[in-house]
Amino acid sequence: MSQQNARAAAVEERQLKPIYEALDTGNAKSALTHCNKLLKKYPPPPAPGTVTTGPPHPSTTPRQIVTALKILALVRGAKLDEASVLCTTLLAETPTDETVLSTLSHSLKPLDRPKDLVNMWVSAWTRAAKDAEDLKKKAKTAKASDADVAAKMQLVEELGAQSFMAMVKTGHWVMAQSTAFKLYRAFAPPKGQEVDAGYPALRYLYWSVMSAIMQSEYPNPPPPVPVLVMIPPPESVREYEANRKKEEEEDRKLLAEEGAATNGDAPRPVGSKLTPTRRKKRTLALTLAQRFIETSVQMKDGNLVGDEAVIRGMSVERFWLWADVLRRIAQAGDEDNGPSPDNRWLVPNNLMCTQLATAAAASSAHVEELRADIAKKANDWKRECEGMALRLSKGDRNWKTFITFFDALFFFLPNAGETPNPDEYPCLPQEPVEVKKEEKAEQNGDAQLAEEPKEPAAPAAKVPFTVEETRKFVQKIAESDDEKFPKGERAGHLGVLELEKRLRKSAFASGDSPNFVDLIISYSKLFASKPVLPEDILPYLLELEDGEERSKWDAYVESIALETGDNDSLQQTINILKIQRLLSTSQSVTIESEQEFAKTCLKHYIAGLPLGKDLVSTDLQPVDDLALMAATALINVHHLSTLANCTEDSDEPGVAQQKYAKHLLDALVALEYAAGKSRWAYSMRLLLVRLHRLLGSSGLAMQNFTMANLKSIQFDTLSHHILDRASTFSLASVGDLTLVNECVESSQIYGIHGNEVSEQLVKAFQYERYSQIAEFVLLEEKVDNSLQRDLTKLEHFRMKNIHEGLTPESVEVELVELRFVWGRVHHDNRDFETLSNMLPRGSPSLDELTSVGGKKLSESWFRTMLQLWILVLHQTSEQLWTEEEQVTVRPKLLTFSDEALQELTPAERLLVKYGRALIAWLEPHHTPIKHSVMTSAVSTLATAKEKYAASTANGTANPSASAASSANTPSSGKSKSGANRKPNGLSNGTEGTAASSGEGGLGVKVGDMKVFTGMLTLHEPMEVPPMPKDMGEAVKEPPQDISTILDELQSLFDETIAKPSALPWEHLHVAQIAHEVVFLTHLLTARFALAGGKKKTHPTFKPLRAKSISLLDHVAKVITKLGQDANFSAETRQSWIQDRRASGVLHELTDSDIAQVGRKYVESKKSMLEQLGKGLTKAQQSIAKTAAGVPAGSTQ
């Protein structure tokens, strides 16, 4: 029998190997093909609801494994709908094999089915535990061996641990804490073995403690992510909403109680950002964690009992967890109740002062960081100062150690007086003095000296850290570093500078103080060839006073010759130029001085290029910083020219705009040349992306962004360089989906990253790295709720749907997604420090100077645009505001603050203004139609369900689907335009879900029959909400404001085209906004167009549509003309070279180098304008169709 099982296992492994290989190589299609072939060899699963008796069929487990692999292949292939249906079928079989469960668990997280993931493992654990109990009973009657029982208990423990890990992955910390404690109770160490740190079951207690800590931060599971948008919403969405409402109700009760206790005034505690319910849950969770910790150690009144060896199974990470619990309790107390007179931080500080804490801090940076934080909160500055001084004297050169030492010392220094008390004031570290004891030998009367063990002498007198003693101490550290590491260790010398800077600020500097400028110059000479020199000394240079000190430093800088003969002299030149740049101010620079600086940098760049001629292509050139400084100086010249209004109005608009952008074009040429020499200089590439976007050459921007070679999480932190206002540069209207696809590709990291972090979280628990768990959870939360993620989603929505149009199904799905995004709390993970901001102090940042729109996109910008589109989609959809939403949600969506509107460009403000006016005019027309449709649909569905319930109770057959169809569909048999549309994201065939009839009708399955209600989203009987009371009266003619806004938009476009100081991106931006305005017009009037515009109750919209199309036609013609005029002819080439050489900055480059960049730029800009013009022209004929859809209440 065992041989037969072995052969079967070998066959199964051979069959599954191609599937595993295909999945490992990312070939989901091949894996799916292999799975389908294998599934044909196994009998089908039992029908849902079938009760099976007896042992499972021998082929059940192999079939379930193949099915789980097929689900994983479908997920990897982005076929989420099919994967979800198959997953539901497999879960209905309640699989228990660990291979099936582990394979399936890889799919449930991407499908956003956290509850199923947890229930799957818990079900298997519960069943295994029951089997183990039965086996124990059999063992008592000798029907089962002890080895079988031990193996079964090992399986139970493993499944229990997997259940815990599933809860960790999904953020169910309350369940995780309870499960871990159950495991500890079930597998607790026997008495007498508690001290054994290696006893595996002891970790479950600490798992429970860590889960309680996370429970205090995240009492509720995270909100569901709409990876698979379903109508109706899945149970997880409804459960989340119910929990949110329940918590809000608890908050109201607690606030009422607090108000009653304080005579009606219940202010939130100072420093606390939590609601009353969250504060209560946090207190309970931390109290529970403390109680669990104290079960692992012998405590009395917060102190250890007896020797520290009594601590059971303590390790460094477990000790960190213990201290972190006490820290969190003290911090929560301060936040909720304010600082206490008896300082609640003394309890954790006493723990961190023990020898155990000292030993743990010496071997763990996390423990040391926690110890330092607790010491500061407990105001234990004396111990902290002396401890840091001792570390420095022993060779610790961590800069944090220096900073902590100075922070603690200057806590005492202002009040030290002339003779500080050594018992209350920090003192120098004492070095023990060893003495020898001499005695005569007792044997043979010899006068030999016997050397006894060395004993420490009496402690020397304590020397307080006065100003003079501190200077000697720090200087001694710097001198010892020079002896050990000549020109290598900077920390000691930086410590000297930091001390003098703080003494100057605290007014302790005196006549005998060392000259501060001399110290800085000495440091600069010592580390002149270190690339980090400017960042090191800049904080101290900014402390120099104008006059003698600044003049002395300037004289030193001027005495240094700028050379590029070798790498050291080149780096010194770069450092000097950087320091000059960072010390200058916006008031001290002029257009001429900036041009001269750029010229100097580019001159030394060309001179230093030969030093990198032998480098491989993947290495960066040592002169890259010089090219970046030259480019940033030229960008600043453009900014100064704008402030000075240096434009020539007498020229033609195109010529004047070319001259206005000349400094940006010079910067573009310099950077393109440098990027060609240093292929992987990502900072250059990102700056080029921003310049190309400003100058209208989006194709080259995309090319440089691709060459920046972003990886993994960088798509979240850096993709804003190409995707901010991406709709401005979209060519989706002519079928170019480059930016649309980039949105999709950059968003893939969010699904992948969530799985990766979950796996790392599991490993942190497995290997007991408790200090990393909170960081992993915070990282996952920040990525899942990334602002850039939803900015990308919004831009993708604007580009994709204006191009493809919106069907009724996609309207409902997009509305669900945008509503979910609107309710999310965002984290801004974008990195704005990658751009080398080498600009004078007081100038706008490089990010601001190169941003489309003049500033980075803020969350208020995002919410304003999101509000507009939610209102538009809601009016276009079949949804009605519920009574609760009319009070809570609708007023918020209709409110646009003036501050938020100022974040928008003028064109965007007109878009929002136009959308709001259009919505206000049409809402009284849309709402009654939708209300009538929903009333009819609810009545139809309720009647059908009553009939079905009655027929089921009587045992009679259900009415046929055809009868239901004939009773609820139009009599005409003609197929309508939307007949074959498949609802995107609908879970068809599921009980109580919307389904397409195949004849254009929309229905719900009730038992075996399909009831056609005429609605997509209605899935169960409900109360029809009343219409909003404040939507105003229905006005047939459009208000004059709407037509006026269209005129304003056309005027803005014409002014932008004619304005001498307009950059190319502005032309594209206003043109795309005009396209979006026309799309809004047709989208919001589609219901009435399809229902017949001659009805008396319908608004008059045809003139408005015609005017919007006229606007689009005008914009298309102008943009097309701009594209036709952009040519790089021989005459243009000569003019381009002359313009670039006019400033004298680029005189080091050849004509060929300059012309090559010019040709690429002009051709890219020409392509952008011509393609956009074609797209706008095409939109005039197609936009009425793409925006139409088939809204509820319309007839075709």
Count of individual helical segments:
47
Largest sheet: 3 strands, antiparallel
Report the radius of gyration as a whole number of Å.
37 Å
- Specify the overall morphology: globular
Structural class, from helix and strand content?
mainly alpha
Distance between the termini: 69 Å
Side by side, the strands of the main sheet go 5-6-7
Q: Would you tell me the overall average pLDDT? A: 82
Share of helix among residues?
55-70%
Residue share in β-strands: under 5%
Oligomeric state as shown: single chain
Poorly predicted regions are: 264-271, 305-310, 432-453, 957-1001, 1188-1196
Number of strands: 7
Record the SSE blueprint.
Layout: H1 2-24, H2 28-39, H3 60-76, H4 80-92, H5 98-108, H6 114-140, H7 146-170, H8 173-186, H9 203-217, H10 235-261, H11 276-294, E1 299-300, E2 303-304, H12 316-337, H13 346-352, H14 355-363, H15 365-377, H16 381-393, H17 399-412, E3 434-435, E4 455-456, H18 467-484, H19 491-505, H20 516-526, H21 533-541, H22 548-558, H23 567-583, H24 591-608, H25 624-643, H26 653-660, H27 662-677, H28 682-694, H29 698-707, H30 714-718, H31 720-723, H32 738-766, H33 770-784, H34 787-804, H35 808-822, H36 846-849, H37 859-876, H38 883-888, H39 890-894, H40 898-901, H41 906-954, H42 961-968, E5 994-996, E6 1002-1006, E7 1009-1012, H43 1040-1058, H44 1064-1091, H45 1102-1125, H46 1130-1141, H47 1151-1186
Helix pairs in contact: 1-2, 1-3, 2-3, 3-4, 3-5, 5-6, 6-7, 7-8, 7-32, 8-9, 9-11, 9-12, 11-12, 12-13, 12-15, 14-15, 16-17, 17-19, 18-19, 19-20, 20-21, 21-23, 24-25, 25-27, 27-28, 27-47, 28-29, 32-33, 32-34, 34-37, 35-37, 37-41, 41-43, 41-44, 43-44, 43-45, 44-45, 44-47, 45-47, 46-47
